[in-house]
Amino acid sequence: MPRARSRYAPDRGLTGRMVTTMFLIGLLYVVFVGVLLAALRGSWPIILIITGGMFIAQFWFSDRIAAYGMGAREVTPEQAPELHGAIDRICALADMPKPKVAIAESDVPNAFATGRSEKTALVCATTGLLRRLEPEELEGVLAHEMSHVAHRDVAVMTIASFLGVLAGIITRIALWGGFARSRPGNDPAGILLLLIPLISAVVYAISFLLTRLLSRYRELSADRAAALLTGRPSALASALTKVSGQMARIPTEDLRKAEPYNAFYFMPAFSAKESMGRLFSSHPTLEQRLDQLSRISTDLSR
């Protein structure tokens, strides 16, 4: 029999956004591959093999690649008793199977979760986070990351990001290789080839915005779910404030290394200040997150 849902509060808004994002991304994917097939008629088997192969690789291996890129190293309960103990307590509260537990050797205070499902999930904290947070604050952060696993939004973000990656690769190949040089300018196929970089750029931009919109909402959803599960929104708010303040003391070089993985992290390496920057940000502002936790704290106190 299938296992019952976890005790994390369901979020219909998140579910609706994930379904909508996946539908729109799938539609973009079909259009994008269709354009490639129309432009390169004789190469359609290669196009299908490459795009299909990349999609499968992205789905099956991207979580491991991301974890490796962020320096995650799986640890035993003997090696990290505090971290394992906190995750054990959250799993008991949420009625969830225990994920793999990892530590990343980095002074940047952060945490992240990866995995296509609860069975393949991995939750990781950096040494910088473990050193700076109190036990209750750490539990709040880990409960936030575990909610990503429970709501399956990690898997959706992984799949949703694929089309943007593929479109970006095609755009670079087109710009560097010069598709247009391979055909006469007045040839319809040549004109279509000229359009590939433009179409790829549009697809990349749309998929980027869709994933960013989903990412910001899922972070608010994870904060809300973690606060309700633990019953201590103040602990999570304290962790957010502390981590945000500590980020300013981290060398810029270290933050730049972490920046490509912002969408996975509990707190972004750099926080956007301007309105346009916030539009492209992977996370809501600190003020938005603290305001939501304050409202939850008021509701719980009643």
Please provide a written account of the structure.
Strands 1-2-4-3 form a four-stranded mixed sheet, sandwiched between helices. α7 crosses α8 (233-247). The longest helix is centred in the last third of the chain and has 43 residues, at 188-230. The protein has helices spanning 12-39, 44-69, 81-94, 127-132, 135-151, 153-177, 188-230, 233-247, 252-258, 275-279, 286-301; strands spanning 72-74, 100-104, 111-114, 122-126. The mean pLDDT is 82. The protein is built from eleven helices and four strands, in the order ααβαβββαααααααα. Helices cover 67% and strands 6% of the residues. It is mainly alpha-helical and 302 residues long. The protein folds into two domains: 12-67 and 157-209, no CATH class; 70-152 and 214-301, Metalloproteases ("zincins"), catalytic domain (Zincin-like), CATH 3.30.2010.10. The radius of gyration is 21 Å and the shape is globular. Its cofactor is Zn(2+). One of its GO terms (molecular function) is peptidase activity. Residues 78-295 form the Peptidase M48 domain. InterPro entries: HtpX_protease, Pept_M48_protease_HtpX, Peptidase_M48. It is a multi-pass membrane protein.
How many structural domains can be distinguished in the coordinates?
A: 2
CATH 2nd-level architecture of the largest domain: 2-Layer Sandwich
CATH class of the largest domain: Alpha Beta
Q: Kindly state the percentage of residues in helix.
A: 55-70%
User: Main beta sheet: strand number and arrangement?
Assistant: 4 strands, mixed
Low-confidence stretches: none
In the CATH hierarchy, what is the superfamily of the largest domain? Metalloproteases ("zincins"), catalytic domain
What's the helix-strand series?
Answer: HHEHEEEHHHHHHHH
